[in-house]
């Protein structure tokens, strides 16, 4: 059975919604799935003076306490990893980057070679650095010798008005907590399903299934 880890960071719940949908779709496609969140690095309000933002952040953090935090062992276990992060100035969030920075021992053992990687994001605005965020994640995957599987434009759902990013599903929150379009959810389900299918084919080809 193909093993898929969905590893993500979410501050207000938008990426969380995508991650949960991705995990469910991967499981439905026949994979064994682990849903993991990266550790919250902030210990106090992160946007001074923005009470609504800080309230949403605190409420979301409380709501996901039952989801285990990601560990390097999850990467070692997985055949494929779906990564989720909000865009931060066109870059992955610090929490996810901090987790990736801890992979060096596994990387040095060639423990990430030929694992499948796919990623998704959410930003506040339509042109909020979505593509550069996903491309920045890809830089780590190149170093690992991993195999990147994007959604491309290989399914009609990618042509929906709120979709269209061939690098990875990208939702627009418009600064509303948990604001994920239904078409985005359908697109991440497709991306997760495609990731499972390609990973299974790769395993068969390499004789590692």
How would you portray this structure in words?
With 209 residues, the protein is α/β, with parallel strands linked by helices. The chain has a single domain, classed as Rossmann fold, CATH 3.40.50.360. Helix content is 42%, strand content 17%. The chain has seven helices and seven strands; from the N terminus they run E-H-E-H-H-E-E-H-H-E-H-E-E-H. Strands 1, 2, 3, 4, 5, 6 and 7 form a seven-stranded mixed beta sheet that branches. A hairpin with a 2-residue loop joins strand 3 and strand 4. Helix 1 crosses helix 7. The N and C termini lie close together (7 Å). The model has no long low-confidence stretch (mean pLDDT 94).
Number of folding domains?
1
Poorly predicted regions are none
Query: What distance lies between the first and last C-alpha atoms, to the nearest angstrom?
Result: 7 Å
Number of H/I helices: 7
Q: Which class best fits the helix and strand makeup? A: alpha/beta
Order of SSEs: EHEHHEEHHEHEEH
The oligomeric state is: single chain
**Could you name the CATH homologous superfamily?**
Flavodoxin domain
Q: Percent of residues in beta strands? A: 15-25%
